[in-house]
Write a structure and sequence with these properties.
This protein is mainly alpha-helical. It is built from 2 helices and no strands. Helix 1 crosses helix 2.
Length: 74
């Protein structure tokens, strides 16, 4: 990525970010299929990894920005 955060990302950077987002969606989907993904406040029984995946999934679902090129997840 460019050092100047005020510059728009290049085409290569956008593709990289799209791939990262797809991988993040795949991780969240796997957690959902295993039955532990939660968008609610964390239970005291959640592991650190589960808390991290849940936080990532909440961010993916609820935080969007103009021009973020969000992909639809299956």
């Amino acid at each position: 990525m460019d050092d100047d955060i005020n510059e728009p990302p290049s085409a290569d950077e956008l593709e990289y970010l799209r791939r990262i987002e797809r991988m993040a969606h795949a991780v969240a989907e796997a957690a959902a299929q295993e039955g532990w993904l939660s968008f609610l406040p964390e239970s005291s029984e959640a592991t650190l990894s589960q808390r991290a995946v849940n936080a990532m999934a909440r961010r993916l679902r609820f935080a969007h920005f103009d021009g973020d090129a969000c992909i639809d997840h299956d």
